[in-house]
Amino acid sequence: MTINTITTRVGYESHRLEQAEQQRQETQQVPAQQDASSDRVSISDEARIKAGTLKAAQESDGVRPDVVAEAKARIAAGQYKIDSRDIAASLVKQELDLWG
Q1: Partner of 79 for a Cys bridge, out of 32, 46, 74, 97, CB 3.0 to 4.6 A?
Q2: What is d(CA 6, CA 77) in angstroms, rounded to the nearest whole number?
Q3: How far apart are CA 68 and CA 81, in angstroms?
Q4: Is the pLDDT of residue 22 over 80?
Q5: How far apart are CA 47 and CA 66, in angstroms?
Q6: What pLDDT is stored for residue 62 in this prediction?
Q7: pLDDT for the residue 27
């Protein structure tokens, strides 16, 4: 004799599906609640200063008007002398520093 217990199995399977769906919904809600309340960022004063300095350097065009004005004044007055040996020595030093 064969006993068919289809109704019992269907009820059990539907109960398992409901439990799985409920667990899935609960796990989706928990991270959302944790994200909203527990994350916090703190930036030190030193980091704020460094960020401000970096931003100013990036926005700068690299030209120092005070140095340019001084050089122009020295050239106009005839006080700006270029020593080719100093320039050559500086170039050699830079190359040696670059290549080790």
Answers
A1: 74
A2: 107
A3: 15
A4: yes
A5: 29
A6: 84
A7: 79
pLDDT in tens, 34-88: 555 678 889 999 999 999 999 998 888 888 899 999 999 999 999 988 899 999 9
> What is the chain's length?
100
- Among residues 41, 38, 40, 42, which one has the least CA distance to residue 30? 38
Give the chain's radius of gyration (CA, Å).
Answer: 37
CA distance linking residue 27 with residue 90, whole number of Å: 66
List, in order, residues 6 or more apart from 74 with CB less than 8 Å away: 80
> Where are the chain's structural domains?
64-99
Token digits of residue 72: 């122009």
